[in-house]
Amino acid sequence: MILLKDCLLIRNLGLQAYEPVWHSMQSFTENRNSATADEIWLLEHEAVFTLGRNGKNKHILSASDIPVIKIDRGGQVTYHGPGQLTAYLLIDLKRRGLGVRELVSLIEQSIIQTLAEYQLEAYAKKNAPGVYINEGKIAALGLRIKKGCSFHGLSLNIKMDLSPFSQINPCGYENLKVIQVSDFIKDVKNSQLQQQLVLHLSNNLSCNTAYTKVIWQNN
Q1: Which domains does the chain have, with CATH numbers?
Q2: Alpha carbons 192 and 18: distance in angstroms, whole number
Q3: Of 7, 149, 171, 207, which residue is the catalytic one?
Q4: What angle do CA 194, 102, 85 make, to 5 degrees?
Q5: Cα–Cα distances in Å, from 80 out to 1, 5, 120?
Q6: Lower CB count within 10 Å: N or C terminus of the chain?
Q7: What are the angstrom distances between the C-alpha of 15 and each of 80, 85, 120?
Q8: What pLDDT does residue 133 have?
Q9: 10 Å Cβ neighbour count for 15?
Q10: Pairing state between β 136-146 and 128-133
């Protein structure tokens, strides 16, 4: 018999405003229990800058009509917008035998494996979480852990307007070059990358459990 806690529920949420999804993650984490299935939420966000709980306003270089939202994840400021794949990981770390650093490495490795399917040689940096190609940052990470469970997650730039990144120091780094998959693969499809990323995430997460059944749900 497959128990709910042994499932990984994938929710495909489409294009969403930031704040309602953020508050839904908080509520989900606050109310979950030992029998609650882990979930991954896949989506794109309407244009928004998010500033981590210890983020510094000095990394926002200029004002614009894009809202800035102070949130509860770690890290500094980043940008979300259409054409960027965001994946939120609502994972019970204790149940899966994971530490925070292990989860970060698992996420980075999953992104690297996904990009390798396009013959892109990506890598992680020890002291600067995220994924890079030729010193350009293609994916960002930011997590919050509460009650031994994670929320927030990753953003992978696919085919988007990168110009808002010029209004900030991305992730708190001056002159950090931000890149995207379409710089290398012109006909890249968000839906295909979603499926490939989920496959690698679920496989890597399942290494820490006896069994995980993946369930897709389009909302």
Answers
A1: 4-209 (3.30.930.10)
A2: 23
A3: 171
A4: 20
A5: 40, 31, 22
A6: N
A7: 11, 10, 27
A8: 98
A9: 9
A10: antiparallel
* β-sheet with 48-51: strand ranges across: 68-70, 48-51, 77-80
Burial pattern 128-155, b for ≥16 Cβ within 10 A else e, equals ebbbbbeeebbbbbbbbbeeebbbbbbb
Amino acid, single-letter form, for residue 204: N
Give pLDDT < 50 ranges for the chain: 210
pLDDT in tens, 44-89: 999 999 999 988 989 998 889 999 999 999 889 999 999 999 999 9
Q: In terms of DSSP H, where are the helices of 32-182?
A: 93-96, 100-116
Q: What is the C-alpha to C-alpha distance for residues 199 and 201, in angstroms, rounded to an integer?
A: 6
d(CA 43, CA 82) in angstroms, rounded, equals: 9
Q: 4: which 2 tokens?
A: 């709910």
Closest listed residue to residue 16, CA positions, set 45, 41, 51: 45
149 is an active site residue: no
Amino acid 176: pLDDT: 92
Residue found by looking up tokens 């698992």 in the block: 106
Amino acid in the structure at residue 14: G
The pLDDT of residue 207: 58
Residue of 71, 63, 79 whose CA lies nearest to 160? 79
Q: What distance separates the 2 farthest-apart alpha carbons in the chain?
A: 55
Residue pair 81/161 in contact by the 8 Å Cβ criterion: yes
Rounded to two decimals, the pTM is: 0.93
- Sequence letter at residue 156: L
